[in-house]
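Hmm, how's this folded?
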Amino acid sequence: SRPLNAPAFVVTLFESLGGRTYFVGHMWLVALLLVALALVNALCMFLKGRLSALASENIARKIRNEAYDHLQRLSYDYHVKAETGDLIQRCTSDVETLRRFLAVQLMEIGNAALMIGLAIAILLGRNVPLTLASLAMVPVLFISAYLYGKKITADFLVVDESEGKLSATLQENLTGVRVVRAFGRQQHEVEKFDEASVDFRDKSARLYKFLAAFWSSGDALSMAQTAVTLIVGIGMAARGEITVGTLTVFVSYVGMLLGPVRQLGRLLADGGKALVSLQRIDEIMRQPVETDAPDSVQPSLAGDIVFDNVCFGYDDKRMVLNHLSCTIRQGATVAILGGTGSGKSTLVHLLQRLYEPRSGSITIGGVPLNKINKKWLRQRVGLVLQEPFLYAKTLRENVAIVAPDAPEPSVVAAATVARADAFIRQSDRGYDTLVGERGVTLSGGQKQRVAIARTLMKQSDILIFDDSLSAVDTQTDAAIRTALRESRGHTTTLIISHRITTLSEADWILVLDHGHLAQQGTHAQLVAQSGLYQHIHNIQNTLEDELTQTLRDDPALREVTPHAGT
């Protein structure tokens, strides 16, 4: 019998178990060995899948959490400019692409490298010339795979960015669905989405056409390599240089070799896609987060607010605030009036350190604002916006969101001051009534009152109402302001409004015009002065007088107009 053609350690192991004669007489052991090997292979495959899935899921979870945490700490200015839909895709779809690559393709790279190395070692041990002939096409496959990988990465970036625009279009439409319906823009939005969808489809189609061309050419080269092996091998067998069995072994192992090489292109495609996803996530992670100076302080905010020669612009072309100087006394109610673009909301943004002044200074109680810890400052400065954001939670949770452990009486007290308690109790389930996403189930005035109640739960040192009483009628407006005066104690209050009835009860009034402080004083002083305040006061009084006269002349109209002067 011919000696066993195998590595020395295999021959030694084979002989120690009884050799050829023993195994020929006990063929059932061979069958048992094959079954055992199959079971071991199945167990290894299970462990590989389970461990790779656990590792990839944990890595994806860590990336998702870190990206989300990083987004929370980015500046207000970044979020103003960023597209929400694109950010959502980066934190979900791109992370999922990375997870799939880590769970599946990364293991396949190791398998491919192992199979290629094993196949080459076995073939070289059988016949070196035929091995070299069997590897003739492999360098071509490797070079084409490398060039293909570079090209496909750029294409994946184009497709991913197109998908991000598609997500942003969808998110924008769903967020503004009421505006779309109100203006009958459904068809326009459908066409806008279709345009983004067609762009994504076309770019994806070009990408997959290129993928198909590469994969088919790779298959053709692999079949050509098999043909070369057969032609050279048959010639060598005909000349007696190798046996037919050796040729059969070569054909089998060349197939085992070319499979991973062909798969290399697919691995590079998935790797390129994962690399693009990683780059898009990294773009978020490289954005600078908001930071505080090492010597930032957490002082009491019970003091005067002083703006000293403050200048600010969102870009270098136009200043929104120009050399603004004013003093807001501690505990006072200060109203701010001004036209669109006059700098009212910008002043509030600076006070919360959402932006920093270009020049000049702001102090609270003598402490420079840029020395105060941002988180501490925003916790102590309560802000109610004109368009408040409510969560898809219960009314109780929305009011108590800044103080989740607050007792029920505190929640009710805040809602009562904001004149929200009555309508909340009249709701289907009272304080347990669910609010639709972004508060769509509530009217504008109801949302504003819930937002005011939520802000009052903070027990802030400074309260800011950025035109946040505009959606309630004048009677409710007056009732809320009366309740605030009675409950706020020494809290400094800033009210941005266009209603003279609201402004008139403030201790001091600031009038802004194109970023300048045009006027300041009490209601009586400003009404007596020629200027913007007197002009608006006269217009609103004239309109109110005309409405009152109309209601007197038409009793039927008076019955359906419950709040004159709203």
About this structure: The chain has 22 helices and ten strands. The longest strand covers residues 305-312. Residues 560-566 have pLDDT under 50 and may be disordered. Strands lie at 305-312, 321-328, 333-338, 359-364, 367-368, 381-384, 462-466, 492-496, 508-513, 516-521.
